[in-house]
Amino acid sequence: MTALKCKAAFGVVMRTFSDRALAIQPTGVRKMFDLAGDDVISFGLGEPDFQPPTVAIDAFHQAMLNGRNKYTTTAGLPALRAKIAESWSDYQGGMDEANVCMTMSGTNALLNLFMTLVNPGENVLLPEPYFPLYGPDATLVGGEGKYYPCLFENEFIPKIADLEALVDENTVAVLYNFPSNPTGGTLNHEQRDELLAFAQKHDLWIISDEVYDRIVFEGEHVSFMGTGYEKVMVVNSFSKTFAMTGWRIGYIISTNVEAMKQVIKIQYYISACSNDAMQYAVLEAMNSANDYPTMMATEFQQRCNLIVDRLNAMPGVQCHRPKGAIYVFPKVDVPGMTSEEVALELLKDGVLCSPGSAFGPSGEGHLRFAYTISQEDISRGMDKVEATLKRLQS
């Protein structure tokens, strides 16, 4: 659809909206959320139900009282950036504030990297099922998203053959997301190394979305940081780490200082800088509440086990037990119904979840449940899910 329309009667060319605006659509996740009433049990949006650490809230307030209400440098508060670099020292030593750029959320960081790395006509390999912003980000910069499958049968880990089938002379980057939204999939070191070798073979940038790095249930987070590959750009966010979704603060980190110079330049034209007082609050959280994510992860694991056990006890449902993130992505077999139709029936019965189709064609036949509510509410919600599925399957 073109952004120009002719008004034939007057011979005037009238502009409507840009092609990029018309090429993207609202996400299916938001569609379901907007349909929901206030009385539903919500497994919808991936938002921790915790509050940020009290020390961070107090530090935010105090920073404002202290006059920290002004512009900062585009890259962000040097002390915070240095602290972030230090926090990655178990993966990669020798980094400092020059390796970090603060952003107004992880989603801002993603858009920045697409703007920094992708030219019009070039393409990026994206996971599917996917976080719904990946493809539109490619579109917004004039690029193309090419989707590699991450299927239930392989525990949502991509196969190298599927990646090789997509890469071409116009491919400039591959995006990996582990732990994954929406699937909860996680990598081991051997799988990571295979995906790394693929990118190195084709000289691709790696955009590694690792916003759930502190919500891991078994072992340590496996990162693309510290692999010795200079074309790795890691996206992270404090939305999940410290339950700061509404604060909108994240960052990009890389060993590639030249790439970071370009990132910082682009960031100026996206938001100029991040919130002044908020950066002091995040720094205080890192200094004084670094165990907070571990506390949240412990509770999330208990919820994960509860919801997986309940789902796997239901006829027609198969669910992997995730090792990280805050989602389950079960296969749900209701003959003759799409995932969206099943999700709408659940909504009628008081349960909000996301249809798998909202995350791409490979998501069809799945539902996404975010276990970001209490264990009591999870149990009540699963009672309703079980009753609805029995009704639909009978």
Question: What would your notes on this structure say?
Answer:
The chain has helices at 19-23, 28-35, 54-65, 78-87, 106-117, 134-140, 160-164, 189-201, 238-241, 257-271, 276-288, 292-312, 339-348, 375-393, and strands at residues 4-7, 12-15, 41-42, 100-103, 123-128, 144-149, 171-177, 205-209, 232-237, 250-253, 317-318, 327-328, 331-332, 351-352, 354-355, 367-370. It has 394 residues and is α/β, with parallel strands linked by helices. It has two domains: 17-46 and 292-393, Aspartate Aminotransferase, domain 1; 55-288, Type I PLP-dependent aspartate aminotransferase-like (Major domain) (Aspartate Aminotransferase, domain 2, 3-Layer(aba) Sandwich), CATH 3.40.640.10. The longest helix has 21 residues, at 292-312. It is globular and about 60 Å long. It starts with a strand and ends with a helix.
